[in-house]
Amino acid sequence: MADVLDRQVLVLNRLWQPVNLCTARRAFSLLFLGHAQAVHTDPDRLFETHDAHSWLRISHQHDGPDIVHTVSTRFRIPAIIVVPRFDRLPRQEVKFSRQNVFERDNFTCQYCAVRFEIRQLNLDHVIPRHKGGKTTWENVVCSCVRCNTRKANKLPSEANMHPIREPKPPRWRPLLATSNPTVSQSYHESWRHFIEPNPAQVVLSR
Ligand SMILES: [Zn+2]
To answer: Ligand 1 centre from 159 Cα, in Å?
Structure first.
């Protein structure tokens, strides 16, 4: 059951924009706290929204690999939830993580501009930590092991090594969901409506 609850759920803000992925565990907790609604993704009822109560009813009518059984009942894992009170915009919501820095920089060393396998990459603090550099989107870049070693604890001006692109927080990039193998495994067909939005469909759904 643990694996099923680790499945990824697409989180939409109140404007139905994709802002994040969360685990099914987290999605259920938001749903049962009343902070989120589950979005129906079957073609005949696409985009219907449900609170915990009506989602539970839906779950009883459904069978499939996306069902979680508990002692007393069963729940369908939603592929999408919408958080109506969530009015943040997507770009603020990409979590800072090692993987996401690699994704932002397209697995390309920001010093020698070569694309590498993930195991040959490191994170580099542009302004070194011991000189006050922070671990933020603006100060951390993807670097190959060789460049990372060469730059060591020097400032860009001291090492004469400058990132090829100014590091910034990334916008939500739909490709995150398809370029990352661990995510793409759980890439749900219904996400396409939001990740590659077709305006006509979105309008019809509201
Ligand atoms: Zn390099």
So the answer is: 13
* 17 shares a domain with 74: yes
Measure 36 CA to ligand 1 centroid, in angstroms: 43
- Number of structural domains found in the chain: 2
Q: What is the pLDDT of residues 88-144, one digit of tens each?
A: 665 545 778 898 899 889 999 999 999 999 999 999 999 999 999 999 999 999 999
| Same-domain pairing of 200 and 146 | no
For residue 139, report the distance from its CA to the centre of ligand 1, in Å.
16
Do residues 58 and 122 both lie within one domain?
no
Residue 198 within a domain: yes
Q: Residue 93: what pLDDT?
A: 54
Distance 55 CA to ligand 1 centre (A): 50
Domain that residue 50 falls in: 2-92+181-205
Q: Where are the alpha helices (H) located in the chain, listed in sequence order?
A: 2-5, 24-32, 52-60, 98-104, 145-151, 156-159, 176-179, 181-184, 192-195, 199-205
- pLDDT of 198 strictly over 50: no
Q: Which of 53, 68, 59, 61 is nearest to 23 (CA)?
A: 68
From ligand 1's centre to the CA of 105, what distance in Å?
12
Look at the pTM and tell me if it is higher than 0.70.
Answer: no
